[in-house]
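Fig. S4 source data, part A: sequence.
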Amino acid sequence: MEDDLPRKRGDAAGLLAKEPLDSYSQDELMERIAQLEAEIARVKAQHAKAADHRKLADMLFKPKSQS
């Protein structure tokens, strides 16, 4: 029954925003940017997949109009 409970979500972006960047080299900063951009692409792809799923569900369960 735990699957029915809302998941606890962390604030990873907030933690990243607070991390000091002074100790990173230019190469390390560019690697970090690449990793963050890859994560953004992954999240956008999941968002698009969820939006498509929602659209299909809405079409399937939409009440039939009385035309």
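Fig. S4 source data, part B ends here. The chain has a mean pLDDT of 88.
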